[in-house]
Amino acid sequence: MRAVANWFTPKIALARIAWLRTILYLFVILDMHAFVRDTRLKGESPGLYQPLYLARLFELPKPTVAITTTLYYVLIVACLVAATNRFPRIAGWVVAPAFTWWVLIGMSDGKVDHDHLALVIALWVLPTVAQSRKGSPWADQTRSEAAGWAIRCVQICVIATYFLSAIAKLRSAGWALTWPGSAILTWAIVRRPHPVGEWLLHHPWMLHVMQWIGIIGEFLSPVVLWLKGRWQLLGALFFIGFHVANTAILLIHFLPTVVCWLAFAPMERIVPWFRSRRSADSADSARSAGDAGDAREAEDQTEDGRQAKEQAGA
Amino acid sequence: MAGVADSDVRLGRVGKGVRLAVALVGIGLLVNGSVRASDDVWPFGPMSQYAQTVPDDASITYTRISAQTDAGTTVDVPLNIEGAGVARAEIEARTGEIVANPSLLQTVADGWAKKHPDKPKYVKLELIRDTTQLVEGRVDGPPKAEVLATWQVRR
Question: Rounded to two decimals, what is the model's pTM?
């Protein structure tokens, strides 16, 4: 039991949380304009509004211009604040419910997208992590179990997006493995025609190969959670390649999930790496100038870098 | 590196227990969604986009809206946010309702008029289904069109 609990709460440097905050909160602003961008429109003409379960459970009011406009400005301000890592918890606790509501409205018209799971869950877990009060949050090498839990939750949701897609493919066939040999990609291309796809329509066997690679990758995706270092990077690159192929064939990008792959990236190493490079440079010049003080500092920085490296596998 | 270990921030028993419980409940909700629920329980619903098995002899349907304008032209309504303010997927998801109640198409005409005040207005809308036939997994000929609903736009 303790091993299970520890797996869910690995010790990860707070710097990774700081980087995730900056990137994800800025991504939310992008998302509101590029992906789930019809929420304000739905405030104007709620004709096709069909509230989802969560909206009914919490008795959220039918969207109006006042509601969606307020949500828009509250989200922009709170995201900008949280992205700076100032008051990240207060701002984060504003963003989480506000963005969830924003997406709920955006998807309350009969069509639900499946690319927002990891991002929405990330927004709910990030505010649970307290900052330590020393120095720049993006450089903070303090390892924290609370940070590890938040990171782990995002990682699990990223992987669940793939693994559960494979489950959905079995379920829709009455729990049978018929999807990879079916004409699903042909169907998708006919409905969203474009040059690459139309060329592939003449070679159905290639589409079947892609379907097999896709579903096998989805089934094996949980393995990535236990891979380390270079192998984990390879796993991540496989799935990012998967999205590149999907974008080319189906025009479906899944960027809100792709950005959450960063939860696997040892971003806490960015600042130490940058510093050690800079101090290596200055150490070089110090050596020529015969200044021992700078070289000593460079040594300290290398130490920082080593600490960061040790936890990067987490 | 004892110094590093000392500075690690650990969770207390309660903090760790609560987090473990939340994570397990979350995973439970995801599994429940994938095994028995529908899109309605977003974000815990099944990942069902493109999950269906399409047989080799399937009829592939594609729904669009065709409009007659007050300039006397017939155009396909751009079904996206910038066009008429409604996405095609939304129209496809609500096709049954629109067939039963074609007045829902008024939203499309209003959306277009509002976003493009200087372009010709829609006077009549037709919900059309294009059907492409597959034979042994390959596309067999051009699609056939069928009008599902017609709506005379109100001013």
Answer: 0.85
